[in-house]
């Protein structure tokens, strides 16, 4: 997979041949990440391919930073897709509700809603809470992005972050607790 990392870096540096060669190698994993984000409650009205391609374009247009490895690339892709989904929900919410929304209370699940509008409200509230978490604990926010937005399992998250699975479970519990407190409105 070192070859993939080299191809990704060359593609980001403007090598058209590398970009052409890397696409078939990364497409299946990017598609899995996009599908995971578009499944379940709060799924925006985006097609999988639309999210995948928009995410790839954002990555390609972002300032070229050195890629550590393929996992780093996929983590960046999950983050880009998170921002696309949130931007889409914000636009849709602004149109449907005039931009005046309130954070909703959640009890035990991060996303558990009855209507698409409530889902959008909760995902927007989650994004705000995730930004607050990132300000305090960037690694926990990154873990949430991988698990929630990237659809990564505990094992995949542990591998991507270079942590033990037990540590991932502990950090996931800590991040969920923080987010639930933020979403319930009990935090300052």
TrEMBL record:
Domain RNA polymerase sigma-70 ECF-like HTH positions: 1-183
Pfam families associated with the record: Sigma70_ECF
Coiled coil: none
Keyword Transcription attached: yes
Alphabetically ordered keywords of this record: Sigma factor, Transcription, Transcription regulation
Transmembrane segments: none
Alphabetized PANTHER family for the sequence: RNA POLYMERASE ECF-TYPE SIGMA FACTO (PTHR43133), SIMILAR TO RNA POLYMERASE SIGMA-E FACTOR (PTHR43133:SF39)
Protein name as annotated: ECF-type sigma factor
Organism: Pelomonas lactea
